[in-house]
Each structure stands twice: as structure tokens, then as C-alpha cells.
Write a structure and sequence with these properties.
Layout lengths: L15 E4 L4 E4 L2 E2 H7 L2 H9 L9 H15 L1 H4 L3 H4 L3 H9 L8 H22 L13 H10 L5 H13 L7 H11 L4 H12 L8 H11 L5 H10 L17 H15 L5 H21 L9 H11 L7 H23 L18
Antiparallel strand pairs: 1-2, 2-3
Helix pairs in contact: 1-9, 2-3, 3-7, 6-7, 6-11, 6-17, 7-8, 7-17, 8-9, 9-14, 9-17, 10-11, 10-17, 11-17, 12-16, 13-15, 14-16
Bound molecules: acetyl coenzyme *A.
Acetyl coenzyme *A binds next to helix 16.
């Protein structure tokens, strides 16, 4: 048995490959760097779904259909009550998705891709006492998310930054939430069930729940001079430094640099607090140094969540909502893996080694 299933290969996939030693992510044969440079969220969604639905879907059709699907799922926002909006945003998103029908066709996939994109901005506005903003089907998914969040049209730099984020986190091998999605799909339950299981796995602080605490850490550190002392004390208390370390990457997570790059146009146009970015860079350097000194048995580098925190903060998502934004981007990966599993895989049913008591001999 391998604790945490480390290094265990549990599925074959044509979707993405994570090379932890080289620090490389490939999605459908294309490097992450190339995808972030050249592709929109809709391009990557169409790429991931290729040959997994009942018929071929191009990016243009997907964009138009996704716009209509955002309009369709908006009706569920009106049915929301106080018990949902009081929940953490990602839990409220999950509860609303649970109301959607289950299925494994293109229609179900579209509703699931649209749902968190519509529900999260609406939940955030309602929590602030504002009316939800209806989707605009003609916009891209990224532009519409920001429009629904703020009530006004986003700048080109903001749309590109969110698009880069959604592309960057679209898929990432057999991470915990994707594995959860595949387990559910292997039973032939539908895509909605797979996505619900995946969101439940994502929300944990060791997976998609880290970026909010990254900002808490930056706030607590406050100044560049305080970084080393603060980080040292956190490690003394046995805490993990949020935004660092990874099960697979032994070098820098390539997604961190993709997101760092996506921040550049926002910084250059004054749409983000440059002092905050400078502090983050100083904290990153201090954390890498102290982890190198204290954790000598394994290297721990920066992971995707560190720059996710800065990017989503710059786009004015509240930190409590970061895991929900992650779910918007990763749903496409979950759906593609669930379809691949349902089409090609067997029921996932491993065994456990029993280490409990045995009945006494008579
Ligand atoms: N800070 C301090 N120590 C760390 C960190 C960290 N960020 N990451 C790992 N370590 C320590 C562990 O505590 C462990 O030491 P211990 O046995 O003395 O407690 C040792 O390094 C071994 O770690 P790994 O086996 O590499 O860690 P694992 O694969 O179990 O966990 C994980 C990976 C969960 C990401 C871990 O690095 C962590 O908790 N990081 C902080 C949270 C975080 O940033 N999560 C987001 C990950 S990215 C994503 O899922 C989208």
C-alpha cells in the first residue's frame, strides 16, 4: 500500500500530463505556456471535450451555447434563500449545482460549466445586499463572470487575466478532486454527481482551499522586513506555508509563472496594487529560503495557489470566494475526466488492508 496513493497510477488519460520533475504541464498535447498565450477559456474547453461528447463541438459553438446556458441556470439564482447565502460561497455553489438534473450529454455539461460561473457572482452580490446581475450570453465566459460580479463591463486586461487563470487551472492530471470525479463517473452516475463530488474534494485547505489563506498570510506579514521572522514562527508552530509545496512538483509549479505573467498587464496599467505584488515577491523568496533550510528531505517550491491569490484579489474577488472561482475553472477538467472514465474505464473499486481486531476463536 502507498500512503496517499503517492506514485500510484490509477487511470489512463489523453487529457493532461503533469511532469513534476521537469515542472511541465501538458494539456491535450499542448504546453501550458502555449495555451495561456494563444487560447481562450472556450478554446481550451472545446479542446478538452474533444471526442468525449455525442458529437464534435467547436470553440465558437461552445461559446454561444455556454452563453445561453448561463441564462438558463440564472433562474436558480432567484430560488436562492438565506440558508444558502449564509454558507461559505463554495458550499452555496455546490448546493445550487445539486439542484441541476444529472446526465452525461452535452446539455448537462453546458449547464455544469455555466452553473458556478453564474452562481458564484450572484451569491457574492446577495451577501453584500446587492441584486444579482443577469448574465449576458454574447460575452465570453470570463467577461461575463466579471460583469456579473461587478455590475459593469470589465477592462480588456481584466478579461485576459481571468481567461489566463481559467485556462491555467482547467485540468491537472489525477489530482484529488479529479480522482473523486472519476470514481463517481466509474459507477455510471451522471456528470452532475461527478462535479458535486469533485467540488467537495476541492474545498479542503490542502487542495483548492489554500489561496484565501495565502492573502491572510500576506496581511499578517505586512512588511518585507517581517517576512522571514513571521514564516519562521509559523513553521515553529508546525504550520504549513500556504501556496508552497506540492505532491507531484519537486520544482516550481509552471502554473505559478503563468499566473504571475497574467498579472503583468494589470500591474503595467495600474489596475493592481504594485506594493502588494512587491510584498508577495519578497515573501515568496523568504519562504523558499526558509523551506530549503528547514525541510531538507524534500524540495518545496511555490505552487499555483500563491499567484492565484494575487490574481483573484486583483480581479476583486473576495478571498472567501477563491475556492469557488477555482471550481469555475476546474469544472471543465472534471467533466472531461468523468466522460473519459465513463467511456473507457472500469468501475473503480480498490481494496483496503484490514488492520482492526478479528473475532476471537471459539
Ligand atoms: N509548508 C511547510 N511544510 C510543508 C509544506 C508547506 N507548504 N508542504 C509540505 N511540507 C512538509 C510537510 O509538513 C511534510 O513534513 P512533515 O512530514 O515533517 O510534516 C513534508 O514537507 C512532506 O511533504 P510532501 O509529502 O511533499 O507533502 P504532501 O504531498 O503530503 O502535501 C501539499 C502536498 C498538501 C500541497 C502540501 O505541500 C501543503 O500542505 N501545502 C500547503 C497548502 C497548499 O498550498 N495547498 C495547495 C496545493 S496546490 C493545489 O492543490 C491546487
Amino acid at each position: 500500500m502507498k500512503n496517499g496513493l503517492e506514485d500510484v497510477i490509477a487511470a489512463e488519460t489523453r487529457l493532461s500530463d503533469v511532469d513534476g520533475d521537469a515542472g511541465r504541464l501538458i494539456i491535450r498535447g499542448i504546453s501550458l505556456e502555449e495555451l495561456v498565450e494563444d487560447s481562450s477559456y472556450e478554446d481550451v474547453a472545446a479542446l478538452l471535450l474533444d471526442e468525449l461528447l455525442e458529437r464534435p463541438i467547436g470553440a465558437a459553438e461552445l461559446r454561444a451555447s455556454l452563453g445561453r446556458a448561463r441564462g438558463e441556470v440564472f433562474v436558480h439564482v432567484q430560488a436562492m434563500d438565506g440558508t444558502l447565502t449564509d454558507l461559505p460561497p463554495v458550499d452555496a455553489v455546490r448546493a445550487l449545482i445539486a439542484r441541476l438534473p444529472d446526465g452525461d450529454d452535452f446539455g448537462t455539461a453546458l449547464l455544469l460549466l455555466a452553473a458556478p460561473a453564474v452562481f458564484l457572482p450572484a451569491i457574492l452580490r446577495i451577501r453584500e445586499g446587492k441584486a444579482p446581475v443577469a448574465p449576458t450570453p454574447s460575452l465570453s465566459q470570463s467577461a461575463d463572470i466579471l460583469a456579473m460580479l461587478t455590475g459593469s463591463l470589465p477592462t480588456a486586461e481584466q478579461v485576459s487575466a481571468l481567461d489566463a487563470y481559467l485556462v491555467t487551472i482547467s485540468d491537472h492530471g489525477l489530482n484529488a478532486s479529479t480522482f473523486a470525479a472519476r470514481v463517481i463517473a466509474s459507477t455510471k452516475a451522471g456528470l452532475t454527481s461527478s462535479v458535486l463530488a469533485a467540488i467537495s474534494a476541492l474545498k479542503g485547505p490542502l487542495h483548492g482551499g489554500a489561496p484565501g489563506p495565502v492573502l491572510d498570510m500576506l496581511d499578517a506579514i505586512g512588511t518585507e522586513e517581517n517576512a522571514r521572522k513571521w514564516l519562521g514562527q509559523a513553521l515553529d508552530r508546525g504550520e504549513r506555508l500556504m501556496g508552497f509545496g506540492h505532491r507531484i512538483y519537486r520544482v516550481r509549479d509552471p502554473r505559478a509563472d503563468a499566473l504571475k505573467g497574467a498579472l503583468v498587464p494589470l500591474v503595467a496599467t495600474g489596475q493592481v496594487d504594485a506594493d502588494r505584488i512587491r510584498l508577495a515577491e519578497a515573501v515568496e523568496q523568504a519562504a523558499l529560503a526558509i523551506l530549503r533550510e528547514r525541510k531538507t528531505d524534500r524540495t518545496h517550491d511555490v505552487n499555483v495557489e500563491f499567484y492565484t491569490a494575487l490574481l483573484l484579489d486583483a480581479l476583486k474577488f473576495p478571498r472567501k470566494a477563491f475556492t469557488g472561482v477555482f471550481s469555475i475553472g476546474r469544472t471543465i477538467g472534471w467533466i472531461a475526466h468523468a466522460r473519459e472514465q465513463a467511456l473507457e474505464g472500469r468501475l473503480i473499486r480498490p481494496r483496503s488492508a484490514y488492520i482492526g481486531p478479528v473475532p476471537q476463536a471459539a
